[in-house]
């Protein structure tokens, strides 16, 4: 693969980058990337097919000798396919201004897998991810979740996922398809979540502060949210949630965070439920301030 380390103004485009997951010697480790970008800026990855890597198809990381605050800046990933990689289609460990457009993250873990085995994992490690956009992307048939965003307090700030497709991800035996944990200022809009087989899964929203989930279509998924911090604003607006009888479940379900002093506002408005056993259920306690409009 390619490693871009502490470089600027680089374009890699129009190529197939093929790894060794089918004949890799040894069974441990999770490194080996199609393209690794470390503490670099103004990078373009375009029209690439990254497949069968022992680690990730694409990895955005911090250079080993750089302080965590020196992150990747202004990264454009466009019309790339990450297919059948072992650990992740793509990992975003650090970045400010990461735009991912018209990309596919598919079949992670098909040949071999190690956790999380997601389509994309936004996972700061003593670093930050700010202002990341996924636009018109596809997350399909991954062994883990389609998208994981797992921050810590303020490590992920500004995550926007729009007009994208999530289809038949196995979710690694869990109940979560799109996992948002400790994320600030997140928007998920205009996306299509569908699964045809197995049991229903959840879109799990555990934000650090404001999150909006709007104008999405869900088939055999439900929306699950849990407040873990004070002052949350959770907007669930104008979604269509369809669950067949075989997947009978609640369309929107909420849980209680670990701190009973939390005080949050939930705005659940204009959602359309089809073939549900129950439209809305909650275990939220009285200390939550509800702002619900039908």
Overview of this structure, please?
The chain has strands at 2-5, 8-18, 35-38, 41-51, 56-61, 73-78, 81-83, 88-92, 95-101, 104-106, 118-122, 129-135, 138-140, 147-150, 156-162, 165-167, 176-181, 183-189, 192-194, 201-206, 211-214, 217-219, 221-225, 233-237, 240-242, 250-254, 265-269, 272-274, 278-282, 289-292. The chain is globular, with a radius of gyration of 19 Å. By secondary structure, it is mostly beta strands.
Low-pLDDT residue intervals, each spanning 5 or more residues: 256-261, 281-294
Terminus-to-terminus distance = 52 Å
Q: How many strand elements?
A: 30
Could you tell me the mean pLDDT?
82
Q: Which series of helices and strands comes N to C?
A: EEEEEEEEEEEEEEEEEEEEEEEEEEEEEE
Q: Which class best fits the helix and strand makeup? A: mainly beta
The biggest beta sheet reads:
19 strands, parallel
Q: Which descriptor suits the 3D outline?
A: globular
């Amino acid at each position: 693969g390619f490693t871009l380390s502490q470089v600027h103004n680089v374009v890699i485009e129009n190529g197939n980058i093929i790894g060794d997951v089918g004949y890799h010697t040894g069974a441990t480790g999770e490194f080996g990337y199609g393209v690794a970008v470390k503490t670099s800026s103004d990078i373009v990855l375009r029209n690439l097919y990254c497949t069968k890597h022992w680690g990730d198809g694409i990895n955005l990381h911090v250079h080993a000798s750089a302080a965590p605050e020196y992150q990747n800046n202004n990264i454009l990933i466009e019309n790339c396919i990450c297919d059948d990689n072992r650990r992740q289609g793509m990992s975003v460990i650090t970045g400010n201004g990461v735009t991912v457009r018209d990309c596919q993250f598919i079949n992670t873990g098909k040949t071999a897998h190690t956790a999380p085995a997601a389509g994309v994992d936004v996972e700061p490690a003593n670093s930050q991810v700010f202002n990341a956009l996924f636009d018109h992307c596809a997350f399909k048939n991954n062994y883990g979740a389609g998208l994981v965003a797992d921050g810590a307090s303020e490590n992920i700030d500004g995550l926007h996922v729009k007009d994208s497709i999530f289809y038949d991800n196995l979710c690694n035996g869990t109940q979560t398809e799109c996992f948002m944990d400790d994320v600030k200022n997140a928007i998920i809009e205009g996306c299509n979540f569908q699964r045809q087989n197995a049991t229903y899964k959840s879109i799990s929203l555990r934000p650090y502060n404001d999150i909006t989930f709007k104008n999405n279509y869900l088939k055999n998924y439900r929306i699950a949210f849990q407040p873990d911090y004070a002052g949350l604003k959770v907007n669930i607006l104008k979604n269509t949630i369809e669950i067949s009888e075989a997947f009978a479940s609640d369309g929107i379900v909420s849980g209680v965070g670990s701190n009973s002093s939390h005080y949050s506002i939930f705005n659940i408005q204009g959602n359309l439920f089809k073939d549900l056993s129950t439209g809305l259920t909650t275990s939220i306690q009285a200390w939550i301030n509800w702002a619900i409009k039908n």
